[in-house]
Amino acid sequence: MSKLALKQLWARKRRAIGAGIAVIIGVAFLSATMVLGNAMTQGIEALFVEGYAGTDVQVTSAYEVDGEDHQTIPIPARLAADLGALPEVERALPVVEGTAQTVGSDGKGVGGNGPPTIGANWIDQPRNPFVLIDGRAPAGPGEIVVDSWVAETGELAVGDATTVRVPHPVDVTVVGIAEFGSGTRMGGVTYTWFDTDTAQELLFGNADDVSAVDLQVAPGVSPEQLRDAVEPLLPSGTVAYTNAELTERAMEQMESDFLGFFKVFLLVFAVIALLVACFSINNTFSILVAQRTRESALLRALGASSRQVLTSTTAEALLIGVLASGAGLGAGIGLAHGLNALMTAADAGVPSSGMTPSTTVIVAALVTGIGVTLLAAILPAWRASRVAPLAALRDVAVDRSGASVWRAVTGLVLTGAGVAGLIAGPSTGEPMMVAGLGGLAAFVGFVLLGPVAARLAAAVIGTPIAWLRGTTGKLARGNAMRNPKRTAGTAAALMIGAAVVALFANLASSIKYSMTELIDSSFGGDLVVRPDGFSGAGLPTSLAGDIAGLPEIATAVPLRDSPITFEVPGTPFDAGAGKTDWVVATNVADMVSFVDIGEITGSLDAMGADTMAVSTKWADDIGVTLGDSVQARFADGEVGTLTIAATYTLPDLMGDVLVDTAVLDPHSASPSDFLVLIDVADGVPLDQAKQAVSVVTVPAGDPVVETSDEYLDAMGSQLDSALGLVYGLLALAVIIALIGIANTLSLSLHERTRELGLLRAVGQTRRKLRATVRWESVIISIFGTFGGLALGTFLCWGMVRAIAETEGFAQFAPSYSTLGIVLVVAVVAGVVAAWRPARRASKLDVLDAIATD
Amino acid sequence: MTTELLPPPVIAPAHTRPAARAVAATKRYGKGDTAVTALDNVTVDIPAGRFTAVMGPSGSGKSTLMHCLAGLDTLTSGHVFLGDVELGKLNDRQLTKVRREQIGFVFQSFNLLPTLTAKENILLPMTLAGTKPDKAWVDHVIATVGLGERLKHRPSELSGGQQQRVAVARALASRPQVIFADEPTGNLDSRTGGEILAFMRRAVTDLHQTIVMVTHDPSAAAYADEVVFLADGRIVDTMTTPTADRVLDRMKAFH
């Protein structure tokens, strides 16, 4: 029977290729994702290994907050001298690290768009992983060494004068350029080095603190031995790690942070692509099997057992799966290299040494690809094996069934449960979870209901087309309606893509709308100042005061934030326990003069170093009230007590906990602001105020000054560019869906060869024949897209309600323009998908077509 | 089946002018040693207003002759005319137009589009052409078909005989110059087949249409006014006012 499978496959190469392409694209994306993800992991690990090459043991702060390792929490500088005296230590080096952003020759900060902008002390020592490729080491205030990427991007050379933002601008001269000994770079991360004293002064503001102490072992001592020797001597709050532990911890953090997110993100889209591919393959096999009903029946009549027929079809699927998965893996590796080349061009590439796929990747890609193919093919194969031998003598049966009771009932129940989950979600204890499960159920329900709805939907969508385009449209409508299962299966692939687009687009527009609403209703100010990148140096803390001093300005308040862990009364408050919140520090009394935080109970006037204002909800959550004192552990690990001086009812804009800047500053090595909010004095035109503010901000590192509308637009466009990435990835799913449509159309047209011949014989022109095929495709596309948009929009509605419950301020605001555009794109896509099948159909020889069995 | 005579057409069927003709028509398939000559220098006139049957054993070229006369296939050499138009000189678009407006087809099976109702199928050539049907004529034809309520049904809900009646009605509806029927009763039992043939006969006698029918069934040929016998791609005989017995006798001579 396997020989038969091979022959059948060969006889239908073209159709098999159609099914195969869906698998190829899905597997290619999956393997590219994994290869790239692994390469990044390896590349980053290699960088860490090199970066820690000069460190056998590192002593650093033991304190971690919010799961993040805060390198900048200072430890006493004298540890370097103390530990350096140990016999096991060859050399002890103080490490000073913080945030510093070098300004390029164009006046703009280099980097800062995600990867960190690191400021550190240059350590002249034989094992420094960085080597100077030009100039010399910094030797005093006003001298810096930058890494070669900063030099290139910022067009800086040795001897150039520039500015470093720490975050206040400092005039410096570039005296050297350095890079990793191996020459590798981690795209986007910037380094600015000072001499140790200057680094301490600029980054910590004192000479007593360092970030860490690096220890190098004396000959004959292992890092582990050194760590064990150092540990008993360490003051509380500090800890020692060996080189291997450091790399491991750094990698863990990368995985849990950026890298993990990146991998999951890509994987989600790979899964979507594979899901869509699954529908396409399933549809193709269903049609192939339907067309082969006679053949299968003949085989059965000649004595083949139903198992042999099943085996034959399965073997065919297996072969397609193996070939397509192999091709997909190859394409995926190519795709990964291509993407890496693109990323390298954008300075975010990884060393290509890591681009060789691991065995795990190869096995995972092949197993997934073959599995998906088999899974999608097994149901049609099973159906093929059930053909009664007698069917051999009948005409090819066209499957017109669509709505079995089982399908309708299950679909309705699932959709109903999903809808119920989405509606009821917010009133349950786990809004996001219930809404998510509801969304999943609704999705499966929709897919199941597809064939039930397809006839009616095609009829409705086809009616205006039939009305507008006459016979052509009428025939197209009839063709789209004649096999609801097939129409639904084809449309389902497109539906998935459209649903995800609708979900994301509507989510983004809802977030934008909610933000606008929130700022419109709560922010009475006029201008904001923000840094021009989100991982740069931030704003100097003196800026808000300088702006407030301008005659055009009524009030200006700085916003800085930090995580603080609060004691929950009645539970133990030791390391790792408590409730951690990001706390905003500002001048609270000034701020509330133009920011609405609701009804305030208590007084904001006396906000000082040991008081806070909290939202009523937050107070209720941990069971405290106005006047209570709560223990708080700050970002540097120190514990203090904060007394609730006031409560407020609207935490949406400013968060649940507000403190004076005096609360955070003692616990931060180098405080900086992320925003300055400005209220312009009465009667001063905005333009004039903006102008006045610029006079102060330009020398302070030239951050962005915006009206609240401009600020919203800027935030919105950040969201849009994230959305662009999502659309780009979804385009893949749409392409797979289009291939599915084209494939289904080709197969359906093949089935209708005689009909086409008849049409041509009685006078249908080629052009009209093509139009008929095109319209059929458009009807299917609109059906799938509309279903997807409806589903996605509804899911978004449910999600937003759930978010509103957990986060408090989200409002549902669908993006009608995007939905409209997607629908138009679907129509175009339908036309594109129909192009080839339509051409082939119109080229049919009339006589051959009529004579076809 | 009620038939009401329409007033005779203004121009009475001119027996002098053929509705279609083939002149020295030759059709060869393949090349060199494997070439098969399906039509060998055939010259024939299809008289207007008559029911002509084309007979011959399998492989005699009868279907090829019909396909070429209908513009569905092209000749290797020679000419075919529909009225005064030489089909060989037309491009695909013009041929399509000719098929739509001047030729009717009835095939052995699969004559109807499954997605359209019987009535929509009958009107298909006109709707494809975007022309308004001659209502009186179409009503008359539809009345002749005698399907009544079943006109709103789809082909899958009609019997084989009913489907063929719809097919003949469709061929008639655009009042073409010639209707070509390719074994129209081949898939039907003899009683139903007889009904269809009687219906086609009436279309010629009463409605003054021209029908060319390819068949290998002598009793079907007996409904025709004239029979053309083909063998090995050549016309070997003709017969007017045939009967089943005479045709059968003539056919036996081929074996």
How can the largest sheet of chain A be summarized?
8 strands, mixed
List the uncertain runs of chain A: 67-71, 392-398
Q: Alpha-carbon distance between the termini of chain A?
A: 25 Å
| Main sheet overview of chain B | 6 strands, mixed
CATH superfamily of chain B: P-loop containing nucleotide triphosphate hydrolases
Low-confidence stretches of chain B: 1-14
Number of domains of chain B: 1
Instruction: Kindly report the average pLDDT value of chain A.
Output: 82
Structural class based on helices, strands and sheet pairing of chain B: alpha/beta
Total count of strands of chain B: 10
In helices, the fraction of residues of chain A equals: 55-70%
Number of strands of chain A: 26
Quaternary assembly:
heterodimer
Can you offer a commentary on this structure?
- The complex is a heterodimer of chains A (853) and B (255).
- With 853 residues, chain A is an alpha+beta fold.
- Chain A folds into four domains: 1-57 and 64-69 and 242-397, no CATH class; 58-63 and 70-241, no CATH class; 455-524 and 707-853, no CATH class; 541-700, no CATH class.
- In chain A, the strands form five sheets. In chain A, strands 6, 7, 8, 9, 10, 11, 12 and 13 form an eight-stranded mixed beta sheet that branches. Chain A has a six-stranded mixed barrel with strand order 18-19-24-21-23-22.
- In chain A, helix 7 packs parallel to helix 10 (359-385), helix 7 (243-291) packs across helix 14 and helix 12 crosses helix 14.
- Mean pLDDT of chain A is 82; it is low at 67-71 and 392-398.
- In chain B, strands 6-7-8-3-9-10 form a six-stranded mixed beta sheet, sandwiched between helices. In chain B, strands 2-1-4-5 form a four-stranded antiparallel beta sheet, covered by helices on one side.
- The model of chain B is unreliable at 1-14 (pLDDT under 50).
- In chain B, 33% of the residues lie in helices and 25% in strands.
- Chain B has one domain: 3-Layer(aba) Sandwich (Rossmann fold), CATH 3.40.50.
- Chain B has eight helices and ten strands.
- By secondary structure, chain B is of the alpha/beta class.
- The A-B interface holds A 398, 470-471, 474-475, 478-479, 481-482, 754-755, 758-766, 768, 846-847, 850 and B 67, 72-73, 92-93, 96-97, 99-101, 105, 107, 110-116, 120, 124-125, 127-130, 170.
